[in-house]
Amino acid sequence: MDTETDDSITSDEENPFDEFLALHNDNDHDDDLLAIINPAINGIQRINHVKIVNYIETTRAYIEKDFIMHFRLSRMIAYDLIDRFERSDIYVTLHVPSGKPTITAEKHVLAYLWFVGHQTASYRDVADRFGVTLSTLFNIITRVTDFLLSMPNIIRLPTNAEMEVTQQYYRNRTGFPGVIGWNPYSYRQTIRRS
Predict the structure, then answer these.
(1) Which residues, 6 or more positions from 94, have their beta carbon under 8 angstroms from its beta carbon?
(2) Residue 116, Cβ neighbours under 10 Å: how many?
(3) What's the CA gap between 25 and 64, in Å, rounded?
(4) CB 109 within 8 A of CB 140
């Protein structure tokens, strides 16, 4: 066996695994043993999972109709939100030097819109699509939600007068009473009664 030392332990303290290694002094298995014990000594190591790479570039190629179908907003409104988020204190404070690249405002907002716009989207599906970990997606959704809630008049309930105008519009247009909004890109199967 080579006599190389493991420079990853730099503390003057005694290695807590020295006794274990001394008991299992089989030179043939030292490398295997160190491969198992090293993460415990040096902290948890990140496991790189396969993810979709550069999905954001794909979204930029969507025609407007496909963009709206996927994100439930026009590209113009989505990118207006992205610009506002990028200037927000919530996003600006992320630019603290940590050694890891900061996730773009574009990825934040588009991942959020995908998640809230698809009933069947799970954290795992969205994280895989946007190339982030589950914990990072949780942080993205939390940040963008906090950002939207901090903006006055972005998400709000309609006033009684606005609801009345909308109900009247849809009653006149479709004959359905009590409608206060609709999504033309949403599909719901209707079962006709016989």
Answers:
(1) 102, 103, 143
(2) 16
(3) 65
(4) no
How remote is the C-alpha of 168 from its chain's centroid?
A: 39
Query: Over the stretch 154-168, which tens digit does the pLDDT of each residue have?
Result: 667 788 998 899 889
Q: Where are the alpha helices (DSSP H) in the chain?
A: 18-23, 30-42, 55-61, 64-71, 75-87, 89-92, 105-117, 123-130, 134-150, 160-174
pLDDT digits (tens, 9 = 90+) for 44-56: 556 677 778 889 9
Q: Is the pTM of this model over 0.85?
A: no
Q: If you write DSSP's letter for every residue of 106-131 in order, what string do you get? A: HHHHHHHHHHHH-TT--HHHHHHHHT
Give the start-to-end residue ranges of the domains of the chain: 50-150, 156-185
